[in-house]
Amino acid sequence: MLKIDELKVSYGGIEAVKGITFEVPERKIVTLIGANGAGKSTTLRTIAGLVKPAHGRIHLQGEDITSLSPDRIVSKGLTLVPEGRRVFPDLTVLENLKIGAYLRTDSLEDDLNWVYDLFPRLKERSWQAAGTLSGGEQQMLAVGRALMSRPKIIMMDEPSLGLAPIVVKGIFDIIQEINRQGVTVLLIEQNANMALKIADVGYVLETGRISLTGSGRELLANEAVKKAYLGRPSHHFGRSGNRAPNFLPLLYASQQQTACFLSGMGEPFPTIHRKERTQHESLWKPVQHWRVILRDGPAGRGQWGVPCGI
């Protein structure tokens, strides 16, 4: 259904995607897994027409869409759920959903009912401002908005990012249900364990190149994939199934200049050390069994951390 051939994408003089080739079969779930900076999001953004490739071709159902604008690509039946949800916070849930159908001129009633069947919470909150929804509800809204264009293939960029484990499971259940109803899914995820469990086909992307391919089950059983991406999951992290390296500093400080570090990451409950700066000395104090969270601070999204000023 979707074919990517020798795709290369550069930012300035840096080649982010280095000649990748892969296919997305019709009515299947395909996942790209890889570390941050591997080129996953760049690949999806290029397919969606948001980034122009330096080389290669993109075909959707046999038609070359490489040079088409994003709105033309949506009209062909391909849509993207962006990383970070990107809802319109000041608009209502219903208005956000209607924006997903901005190219359509026919009735939206059946599709609104379909989205509400998939996400009953959105129907309950249809007149609520999107910015007041929880993270999980905003992710539901982002997926529902994409479905309003009646896509043949939906691409999802990190749908589990920053969500609680119980919410993540619900999102993956919905992805499978959307696929069962005939929509092809191209998914990129750092939660490799859950992504591969639902995927018909998986690709491992490393520094802009595809290094492995196979069915989801085959990649789950692959020792190299296990070692690199399937570390022992911990429910104490914002990204279920990923582990932070030992002594990863949180690049966020309170006004009191309190700095926090993590240690003991191999244990069920990590130990958190708080460093208090005084005029004469720096004093480390361990704080046991503190829940680790994913914090969006000045260090930028995606840094592991704990709240300072414990």
Description:
The chain has helices spanning 40-47, 70-75, 93-99, 109-118, 120-124, 135-147, 165-180, 192-198, 216-221, 223-229; strands spanning 2-11, 14-24, 29-33, 55-60, 63-64, 78-81, 153-157, 184-189, 201-206, 209-214, 259-263, 271-277, 282-287, 293-295, 303-305. By secondary structure, it is an alpha/beta fold.
Keywords:
disordered C terminus, globular, 10 helices, four-stranded antiparallel β-sheet, six-stranded mixed β-sheet, 15 strands, alpha/beta, 310 residues
- C-alpha Rg (nearest Å): 21 Å
| Main beta-sheet annotation | 6 strands, mixed
Strand order of the largest sheet: 6-7-8-3-9-10
Percent of residues in helices comes to 25-40%
Number of strands: 15
The unreliable regions are 232-310
Instruction: Based on Cα principal axes, name the global outline.
Output: globular
Question: β content, as a range?
Answer: 25-35%
Structural class: alpha/beta
Rounded average pLDDT: 78
Cα end-to-end separation: 52 Å
Order of helices and strands: EEEHEEHEHHHHEHEHEEHHEEEEE
Query: Please, how many helices?
Result: 10
Secondary structure layout:
Blueprint: E1 2-11, E2 14-24, E3 29-33, H1 40-47, E4 55-60, E5 63-64, H2 70-75, E6 78-81, H3 93-99, H4 109-118, H5 120-124, H6 135-147, E7 153-157, H7 165-180, E8 184-189, H8 192-198, E9 201-206, E10 209-214, H9 216-221, H10 223-229, E11 259-263, E12 271-277, E13 282-287, E14 293-295, E15 303-305
Parallel strand pairs: 3-8, 3-9, 6-7, 7-8
Antiparallel strand pairs: 1-2, 1-4, 4-5, 9-10, 11-12, 12-13, 14-15
Helix pairs in contact: 3-6
